[in-house]
From TrEMBL:
InterPro entries: ADH-like_C (IPR013149), ER (IPR020843), GroES-like_sf (IPR011032), NAD(P)-bd_dom_sf (IPR036291), Zn-ADH-like_protein (IPR051397). Residues 9-308 form the Enoyl reductase (ER) domain. This is Alcohol dehydrogenase, zinc-binding. GO terms for molecular function: oxidoreductase activity. Pfam families: ADH_zinc_N. CDD domains: MDR4.
Length: 311
């Protein structure tokens, strides 16, 4: 089969090559990949730092061509969306049946391929907060892939959503996705009504400010660190003064939280196919242009998700 492999001598560290077909384990299905999406972590770290000759890629949508030998998962011919630690950027991938969701017949695999890491993280981070109906939720890094899904899902779940973005030009678009208010300076959070939960995707000063914005028993889910900065809490920030006690900071990583993920991906795919969830695909091209697409995403020139189709 053809696959994009890591080649540090090639432009963008990627080369389209012939590799052996994957051999699924008994609990895995073999998937013919139709589309895959790029994530920031892949273009910033996985590809430039990865082992030469390996096939990268977390998210992909396609069709089951061989069902799992142990009888789990969907049958051959079923459209699916999949996630794994590697192997998505290829014509075929072997995937654990618990790491795939079924897709409505006729749905475009391109937008669906954006869901696993970004929307899956957003959904499960919101669940860590607890009930959000009628409550206030903060999303930092709201203009990024996970952030846009998080604010949409929080709004669909009945929350009052505050979106924090460093780019004022994104404010109108974030409101269109469901944000009730948009702020561009972390310091401004101190002057807003406290929030019951936060999906924090930036780290550094944003995490410190988001923690300070929590109300009593509030939960901050640290699911990203795009700033690359460490956190420094001022003296007294963790005292729990002014009756805001028991505020929590929890971390989250999707690939370590696989139980029930297939059902979540199925639900997210149906939501997207109905038009109730907008993946915000901003770049879509042939997979032979993967190096170009990765460079555009890494350079922050893609105001949404990047999708590549295998033709």
């Amino acid at each position: 089969m053809k696959a994009l492999t890591i080649d540090h001598s090639a432009p963008g560290h990627l080369a389209l090559t012939e590799v052996a077909d994957p051999e699924p384990a008994a609990h895995q299905a073999l998937i013919q990949v139709h589309s895959f999406s790029l994530n920031a972590g892949e273009v910033h770290h996985v590809v430039p730092e990865g082992e030469a000759g390996t096939v990268p890629g977390w998210d992909a949508a396609g069709v089951v061509v061989r069902a799992a030998a142990d009888g789990t998962g969907p049958v051959a011919g079923t459209p699916v969306v999949t996630v794994g630690a590697e192997g998505a950027w290829a014509e075929l991938r072997a995937v654990d049946t618990g790491m795939m969701g079924t897709v409505p017949e006729g749905a475009d695999p391109g937008p669906i391929s954006t869901l696993p890491v970004a929307a899956g993280t957003a959904l499960r981070a919101l669940r860590r907060i607890g009930p959000i109906l009628g409550r206030r939720v903060l999303v930092t890094g709201a203009g990024g892939g996970v952030g846009r899904f998080a604010l949409q899902l929080a709004a669909l779940g009945g929350a009052h959503v505050t979106a924090l973005t460093s780019d004022p030009a994104k404010a109108e678009g974030l409101r269109a996705l469901g944000a009730h208010e948009v702020v561009t300076d972390p310091a401004a959070l101190a002057h807003l009504e406290p929030v019951h939960g936060a999906v924090e995707l930036v780290g550094g000063a944003h995490l410190v400010a988001a923690h300070g914005a929590l109300t009593e028993n509030g939960v901050l889910v640290a699911a990203g660190h795009s700033s690359g900065d460490g956190e420094r809490f001022p003296f007294g920030a963790l005292f729990g003064n002014d009756r805001r006690h028991n505020r929590q900071i929890v971390t989250y990583y999707l690939l370590d939280d696989a139980v029930g993920l297939g059902a979540d991906l199925t639900w997210l795919a149906a939501l997207t196919a109905r038009g109730d969830l907008d993946p915000q695909v901003a770049l879509r091209t042939d997979w032979t242009r993967a190096a170009h697409a990765a460079a555009e995403l890494a350079g922050r020139r893609v105001p949404g998700k990047a999708v590549l189709d295998i033709r």
